[in-house]
User: Fold this.
Amino acid sequence: QSALTQPASVSGSPGQSITISCTGTSSDVGGYNYVSWYQQHPGKAPKLMIYDVSKRPSGVSNRFSGSKSGNTASLTISGLQAEDEADYYCSSYTSSSTYWVFGGGTKLTVL
Amino acid sequence: QVQLVQSGAEVKKPGASVKVSCKASGYTFTSYGISWVRQAPGQGLEWMGWISAYNGNTNYAQKLQGRVTMTTDTSTSTAYMELRSLRSDDTAVYYCARVLTMGAFDIWGQGTMVTVSS
Assistant:
């Protein structure tokens, strides 16, 4: 069982927007602005898409945005494209003895 | 360019040990920490631990305490992860990742498949 809770799957049509949630506790998501999101295509290494809740690394499309409210963080992808189809994982720094925790992952299907 | 290049796939018997390397290039190795993350077949990401490339400080996931050791060699800009007493459920792809800030792993290695089978 993962420390952070994500929906197993979400889907959307090209051009639409989708949001993936990531729920934790006050010891991780709610306690720190250190939430990050990763995109992983099959057989590939994860790629950082969002860090520090809402910052985008250089080169990541501005169609990807992040936010947080209380113990829940969210990743929004606008203007869905076929290449966005992938698994998405959230991660948070945590005050527990384990520095970082991941969500269980969400499979995004572009219809 | 900034990259992490990992060692090749390994096949080990239960009870054995494995040591995976992660060679950094394109940046000052000692300015960033390295985390190790693994992914069992068809499963999600699992954080294993972190090492400071600056001073060698480490922090390991509780479930791996006593079986995992992370080290660095600053002369070759290489990080290592050794896992001992391997079990079948240690079969996974093992990734090293550069720690950008407290909240992100910004550069990832290509992954190393470790298969534990008798």
In short: The longest strand of chain B covers residues 92-101. The two ends of chain B are 40 Å apart (CA to CA). The mean pLDDT of chain B is 96. The interface with chain A takes residues 35, 37, 44-47, 50, 59, 61-62, 95, 97, 100-106, 108-111 of chain B (CB under 8 Å).
